[in-house]
């Protein structure tokens, strides 16, 4: 019975979405196009932020840190125990503090860009079937849900980063590092899974209720899991096609990536929202 109901929900969501696209191709093209523009804007903002902070952190701060550490090693080699480490220690601590400050600003910048552009993308997708959505309320709910998932992600990242940056971790077996990386991938995948579910719920529920329901639906009713696995399979297939396209031309790969991946993600959002509606109707 549960398998039949699962198939019914997924079938209704998928077939219903494609029937709507077939009946109103102009409406669908407009909605998908607007989502794609918002997603592309997010990718541009993210790329600029990463480029800026990478230059600031790696090109400036780390280079300065390497120079100081080189001076320290040379000083110890020349003067031995008499070499004064206090001044250099203060410089190193200041640089490390500056690096962490820049990383914090990077996290805030990524969060704001995600809340703005991805919030708009999800709002556009939600308006495909439900026009009566208040922009301000929706964006605040999306930002609230994003803040929760971002905080959760930062906690996971900090837990994973501690053993990796520990000097003893590098000297230990490679299996330990591999385990940490696999744990990090698994944890971030789980966060992404529940976050997507919560984003489909905020149009009808407040932020905290959406987050709570995302756990209930994600664990007890794994319709989204099947849908996400199908989405992931299609995403991998598109990327494999892009890899082959890159053999002919890098420019061709970029153009095809924009024309294929962004609309694919936009349609997936609409389907996820349809699945969410079907679940909320039946449960």
Succession of helices and strands: HHHHHHHHH
Strand content: under 5%
Number of helices: 9
Which structural class do the helices and strands define?
A: mainly alpha
The figure for the number of domains is 1
Poorly predicted runs of 5 or more residues? 167-172
What is the mean pLDDT? 83
Helix share bin: over 70%
**CA radius of gyration:** 24 Å
Globular, elongated, flat, extended or rod-shaped: what is the shape? globular
Largest sheet: none
Distance between the termini: 14 Å
> Could you give the count of β-strands?
0
Protein architecture, described:
- With 283 residues, the protein is mainly alpha-helical.
- It has one domain (2-282).
- Helix content is 90%, strand content 0%.
- The protein contains nine helices and no strands.
- It has helices at residues 2-23, 25-79, 86-126, 135-165, 167-171, 174-201, 207-220, 223-248, 250-282.
- The longest helix has 55 residues, at 25-79.
- The protein is globular.
Quick overview:
With 283 residues, the chain is mainly alpha-helical. Helix content is 90%, strand content 0%. The model is unreliable at 167-172 (pLDDT under 50).
